[in-house]
């Protein structure tokens, strides 16, 4: 497929008459069943991306949409897909549209929106995500569905097992492409696209356009219409955002104290790593907090039950990663804690935006370390304001890197080890004292009372170094050359007389048993064979 360059202009604009009034969903050429569902949901006017994307999708255009979560992006592609598919019926194992999402939570959210918007249509869908029964998913596909909503991994698993066919796909939606890039799903996405018909309509949505996303769009989109929606980086007036400067070791204690001091109805704490999620949950449970983890390593059933308990209030504190938190829509969240600053500045707005919804008062606290200064500046640049830092003097004594009890314990342990009491001699000390070498004897005498400076290995000298080697002074002069006088000059005063030590050393050498003949041992060894 030869791609034409994408158009940077906006989607076909409304008429001049519509420009002078507020655009409604009736102006977007949607059918009566969809308009009825929209009215019952409570939507009054379409968002900017819906105004631009829906007419273009109904015209069959490929779309490259740059929009953040929370801009009405899901409805901008779900509504026109329902409109397009309502004219025909599904066939067994041959879905007609495919929506790819990076996480199970996002896929679930899209499926919920599909049910809401299509309540008065006869269109069906299948949700293909990990953690659910593959047998049940195959049975649903065999009945015939109009829309597949899937994560890349589970879709490929079912396809390779012969559970579905993709040759009837008329429309492909790639949602949150930037997240798929972060999670390493782009190769799977490319593999899936190569399985689809080339005559399909492709809609790609991403919060940012990285080079890899741009390459993907240029490769698989035909003359796409590029729609860019400026992200709303403003913080709600009902939300109070603060920051606290901490060290990495202080984070758990700060979160604990804030949870104790704040009047929390329900709270979400964001961590960048799943490992930190589990560690923080264990720490809070140990301190009698109702906390639960939510990240990608948990089973789907556990994640679903956790979200339901959080919505109903059975769980007050949710500790989660960014990816797992996508799709959480709870209006009763009063506090948001950033255990780590997000990797992307836009995520900061989405994180803290989960508190203070529906006119309620909300609070957001971010823990900032010295390594977070660059991320902090990027966030402040995005939201256009400085984040106020607060000093919590009353909790500083409990936020020392090392608790006083541990410091006192460490101090007493150190003093015990450096006491003047002699340490037990190792088992090899007897062998050292019996050494015929006077230097070795003197070294043993000066070691172990704690008053002298420890030289070399001290008491931890390896045993192989304690064996008495044959001194060079015992060898004939013609073998050591001129090294003997130099060696003699380095001897201590009590060893200046070489003759007083030469005889014992020569006697020691003479006691060494003669070595067996190599030739004889060789014959004996091989004669047994």
Describe, in plain words, how this protein is organized in 3D.
This protein has 529 residues and is an alpha/beta fold. It folds into two domains: 16-228, 3-Layer(aba) Sandwich (Rossmann fold); 239-399, Rossmann fold (3-Layer(aba) Sandwich), CATH 3.40.50. It has 23 helices and 14 strands. The strands form two sheets. Strands 3-4-2-5-6-1-7 form a seven-stranded parallel sheet, sandwiched between helices. It starts with 15 loop residues before the first helix and ends with a helix. GO terms for molecular function: ATP binding; hydrolase activity; nucleic acid binding; RNA helicase activity.
- From the N-terminal CA to the C-terminal CA, the straight-line distance is 76 Å
Stretches with pLDDT under 50, minimum 5 residues: 8-20, 401-452, 478-511
Mean pLDDT: 76
Q: Into how many domains do the coordinates divide? A: 2
Radius of gyration, in angstroms, nearest whole number: 38 Å
Which short descriptors sum up this protein?
single chain; 529 residues; alpha/beta; Rossmann fold; 7-stranded parallel β-sheet; 14 strands; 12% strand; globular
Summarize the entry for a quick read.
This protein is of the alpha/beta class and 529 residues long. The protein has 23 helices and 14 strands. A motif (Q motif) lies at residues 23-51.
Task: Spell out the blueprint of helices and strands.
Layout: H1 16-19, H2 32-41, H3 48-58, E1 63-66, H4 73-85, E2 97-100, H5 104-117, E3 125-128, H6 134-143, E4 147-150, H7 152-160, E5 171-174, H8 177-182, H9 186-193, E6 201-206, H10 211-220, E7 225-228, E8 239-245, H11 251-261, E9 267-271, H12 274-286, E10 291-294, H13 300-312, E11 317-321, H14 322-325, E12 335-338, H15 345-352, E13 362-368, H16 373-383, E14 388-389, H17 404-417, H18 429-433, H19 438-445, H20 477-480, H21 483-489, H22 499-510, H23 518-527
Helix pairs in contact: 3-4, 4-5, 15-16
Pfam family, one: DEAD
Enzyme class: hydrolase
GO biological process, one term: response to temperature stimulus
């Amino acid at each position: 497929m030869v791609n034409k360059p994408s158009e940077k202009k906006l989607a076909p604009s409304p008429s001049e008459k519509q420009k002078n009034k507020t655009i409604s969903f009736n102006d977007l050429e949607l059918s009566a069943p969809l308009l009825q569902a929209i009215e019952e949901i409570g939507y009054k006017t379409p968002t900017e991306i819906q105004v631009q994307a829906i007419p273009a999708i109904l015209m069959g255009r490929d779309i490259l949409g740059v929009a953040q979560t929370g801009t009405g992006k899901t409805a901008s592609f779900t509504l026109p897909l329902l409109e397009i598919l309502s004219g025909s019926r599904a066939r067994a194992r041959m879905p007609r549209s495919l929506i790819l999402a990076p996480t199970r939570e996002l896929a679930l959210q899209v499926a919920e929106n599909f049910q809401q918007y299509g309540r008065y249509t006869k269109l069906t869908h299948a949700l293909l995500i990990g953690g659910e029964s593959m047998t049940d998913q195959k049975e649903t596909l065999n009945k015939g569905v109009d829309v597949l909503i899937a994560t890349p991994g589970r879709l490929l698993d079912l396809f390779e097992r012969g559970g579905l066919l993709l040759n009837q796909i008329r429309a492909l939606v790639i949602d949150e492409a930037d997240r798929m890039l972060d999670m390493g799903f782009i190769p799977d996405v490319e593999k899936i696209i190569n399985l689809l018909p080339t005559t399909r309509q492709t809609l790609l949505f991403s919060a940012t356009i990285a080079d890899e996303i741009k390459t993907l769009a240029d490769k698989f989109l035909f003359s796409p219409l590029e729609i860019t929606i400026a992200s709303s980086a403003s913080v709600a007036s009902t939300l109070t955002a603060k920051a606290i400067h901490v060290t990495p070791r202080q984070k758990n204690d700060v979160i604990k104290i804030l949870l104790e001091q704040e009047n929390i109805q329900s709270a979400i704490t964001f961590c960048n790593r799943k490992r930190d999620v589990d560690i923080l949950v264990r720490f809070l449970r140990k301190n009698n907090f109702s906390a639960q983890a939510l990240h990608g390593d948990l089973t789907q059933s556990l994640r679903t039950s956790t979200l339901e308990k959080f919505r109903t209030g059975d769980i007050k504190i949710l500790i989660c990663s960014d990816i797992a938190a996508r799709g959480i829509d709870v209006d009763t969240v009063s506090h948001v804690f950033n255990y780590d600053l997000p990797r992307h500045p836009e995520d900061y707005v989405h994180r803290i935006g989960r508190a203070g919804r529906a006119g309620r008062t909300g609070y957001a606290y971010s823990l900032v370390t010295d390594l977070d200064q660059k991320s902090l500046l990027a966030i402040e640049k995005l939201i256009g304001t400085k984040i106020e830092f607060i000093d919590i003097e009353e909790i500083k004594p409990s936020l020392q890197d090392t608790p006083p009890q541990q410091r006192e314990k460490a101090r007493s342990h150190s003093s015990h080890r450096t006491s003047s009491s002699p340490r037990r001699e190792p088992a090899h000390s007897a062998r050292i004292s019996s050494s015929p070498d006077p230097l070795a004897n003197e070294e043993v005498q000066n070691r172990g009372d704690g008053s002298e400076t420890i030289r070399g290995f001290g008491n931890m000298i390896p045993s192989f170094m304690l064996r008495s080697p044959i001194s060079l002074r015992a060898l004939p002069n013609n073998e050591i050359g001129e090294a003997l006088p130099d060696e003699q000059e380095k001897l201590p005063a009590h060893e200046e007389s070489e003759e007083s030590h030469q005889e014992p050393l020569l006697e020691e050498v003479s006691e060494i048993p003669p070595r067996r003949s190599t030739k004889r041992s060789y014959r004996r060894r091989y004669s047994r064979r």
